[in-house]
Amino acid sequence: MKTLIVFYSNTGNTLKLAKVLADKLESETLEIKDRRNRKGLIGFLRAGFDAITSNVTIIEDFNLKFADYDLVIIGTPIWAGRLTPAIRTFLIGNSEVFPEVAFFATHGGGGSSKALIQMEELVEKEPLACLSIEKSSLKDGSSENIQEVDKYVKTLQNKFE
Ligand SMILES: Cc1cc2nc3c(=O)[nH]c(=O)nc-3n(C[C@H](O)[C@H](O)[C@H](O)COP(=O)(O)O)c2cc1C
After folding, report:
1. What DSSP string describes 108-158?
2. Is 82 in the pocket of ligand 1 (CB under 6 A)?
3. Alpha carbon distance 137, 86 (integer Å)
């Protein structure tokens, strides 16, 4: 299967998980970049506000055809229980052109269920699988061996056998 992993990451956790998945699935990756500054206290408060109010943002352009892939896996950090504005913006702009989709999220302990449902609603497509990982599991040296990650990878591989 030809797979693309699309993700946004502000502090590196979702990037780390995206890399583990890309390695296991031999996929290409596309990192979505948010042009808004999300650093510092103001950036943090604005990030939470934008997530709660379902605001979109400005993301950097990319040049990829999603129809070239069998599966697009989309990953986001959880902000205020929601998906990030960058991934919201990405999904709104591209939902019509996705092949099969799967989702993943990293969080600080609050879970990801609401955000994963939001993603499904925006794409209007049922994901083949969803993965939710707490950031503490992604500490150096442990991120390659998370059982849930292996289960997720196997589920996706089985769909294309
Ligand atoms: C603005 C903001 C809001 C957050 N809200 C939540 C939350 O509601 N629940 C939670 O479990 N973690 C929350 N977190 C923690 C992030 O989801 C977690 O650190 C995630 O792994 C960050 O991914 P990244 O390093 O790829 O940016 C929040 C972080 C930020 C910056």
Report:
1. SSS-SHHHHHHHHHHHTS--S-EEEEEGGGGSTTTGGG-HHHHHHHHHHHH
2. no
3. 24
Rounded Cα distance between 106 and 132, Å, is: 6
Over the chain, what is the mean pLDDT? 95
Ligand 1 pocket residue status of 18, Cβ below 6 Å: no
**What's the structural domain count of the chain?**
1
Q: Return the CATH number at 84.
A: 3.40.50.360
What is the pTM assigned to this prediction? 0.96
Instruction: Provide the residue range defining the domain that includes 152.
Output: 3-159
Does ligand 1 lie within 6 Å of residue 135's CB atom? yes
Average pLDDT value for residue range 117-127: 96
Phi, psi (deg, nearest 5) at residue 30: -135, 115
Cα of 142 vs centre of ligand 1, distance in Å, is: 19
Contact, 90 vs 6, CB < 8 A? yes
- Asked if the model's pLDDT at residue 140 lies above 90, the reply is no
Give distance in angstroms: CA of 158 to centre of ligand 1.
31
List phi, psi (to 5°) of 148. -60, -35
